From TrEMBL:
Protein name (Swiss-Prot/TrEMBL): Nitrilase family protein
Keyword hit for Hydrolase: yes
Gene3D superfamilies attached to this UniProt entry: Carbon-nitrogen hydrolase
Keyword Metal-binding listed: no
Length: 272
């Protein structure tokens, strides 16, 4: 079994040093409590609600920034996924997430599906989600709104991902009494459809008039919500057998990937 922890924080827009310190403290506490995989929110280092492209650009970090060496040092034996605003080699800003361990940054994913005003600040990524071989298993990374496009997590599943790590910032929306946030429902459905564990690390805190869902959730490969945080900062942890994700059988004669019929999917497969 793998001890998985999702950390729910309240990043402060513009506070690079403070955000990093709070994230590192939470990471160290999670590792000390036995976490082997730790997922932190989208744009952990920068905050989210930018007032201008110039402000957003001023909060960008390169993947070789010293802060990631601090995350690697705090990781110990754990694998860590953390969201950040990335200044690319091309000088453009990306909404990114780094997967790292004690050896340093192993992969960086750039969010492909930008939500609403993100398009004013970030350039969309143009690469599929990385699926990284780690000592824990194969871990894929995407960010927030990406998960609302079913093809994207399916690509990760087809590439052999055992677990999908999803840093998120989910704005709070009204839901009927007793219902889960829509994004949490999407995570549950996505895990079940792909038989792939999913870890979503959301955020909290009122930021420039925007409130957040606090939807941090851990979902098993069977589509069961096994841990959540609630509306405050904190952590969710669960023990998952990542190898469960490699068995796509839902019943004796049901294989969720093997039963696909791409020969009939036409435009969806062809990209038209």
């Amino acid at each position: 079994m793998t001890r998985v922890t999702a950390v729910q924080l309240a990043p402060v827009v513009g506070d690079l040093a403070g955000n990093a310190d709070r994230a590192l403290q939470a990471l160290a506490a999670a590792v000390a409590a036995g976490a082997e995989l730790v997922v932190l929110p989208e744009l952990t280092t920068s905050g989210y609600v930018f007032e201008s492209p110039e402000e957003a650009a001023s909060l960008g970090l390169a993947p070789d920034d010293a802060v990631f060496a601090r995350f690697a040092a705090a990781a110990g034996d754990a694998v860590v996924v953390v969201g950040f605003a990335e200044t690319g080699d091309d000088g453009r800003l990306y909404n990114s997430a780094a997967l790292l361990d004690a050896s340093g940054v192993r992969a960086v994913y750039r969010k492909v599906h930008l939500w609403d005003r993100e398009k004013l600040f970030f350039r969309p990524g143009d690469a599929r989600p990385p699926v990284v071989e780690t000592r824990l298993g194969r871990i894929a990374v995407m960010i927030c709104f990406d998960m609302e496009f079913p093809e994207w997590p399916r690509i990760a599943a087809l590439a052999g991902a055992d677990l999908l790590a999803v840093p998120t910032n989910w704005p709070l929306v009204p839901v009927p009494e007793g219902e889960r946030a829509p994004e949490v429902q999407i995570a549950i459905a996505t895990a079940r459809m792909n038989r792939m564990a999913i870890v979503c690390a959301d955020r909290v805190g009122l930021e420039r008039g925007v409130d957040w869902t606090g939807g941090t959730s851990i979902v098993s490969a069977e589509g069961a919500l096994v841990a959540a945080v609630g509306p405050t900062a904190g952590t969710a942890s669960a023990d998952l057998d990542l190898l469960d994700s490699r068995d796509k059988r839902q019943a004796e004669h049901v294989d969720l990937l093997g039963d696909r019929r791409p020969d009939l999917y036409g435009p969806l497969v062809g990209g038209a």
